[in-house]
Amino acid sequence: MNTSRKNSQESSTLSSLFLIIFKTDIFLFLSQVFLIFLYVAGNFQNFLDSTQHMILFLSGIFSILLFFFSVFSFAFSIFFFIKAKTSLLKFFLTLLMYIFFIIDSIIIVTAFRIIDILSLGI
Known about the structure:
By secondary structure, this protein is an all-alpha fold.
């Protein structure tokens, strides 16, 4: 009786931690999309160079954070799948989402770093 309550409490803790990590990843991804939109709009609206550099810098920070959180979430989702016995479809969909976030953050940080270097002049 005591072990089943302990397992249930542990599963609940893992589930709530998984949701917090998932929501953090979604927030970072949406913030990154917003900063990309803001940068593109700023090019057409003639934002100041310092503002454009700040947007590039913030996007780089959000991309790096998204990368680290996505790698951690990827590993945690594998652990959560093994420990909590979630459905296989949900497991593969979350893994695909985290792989997309990882690749997206690498591409965005590389592209914005190249843009930043080119905008400063070679």
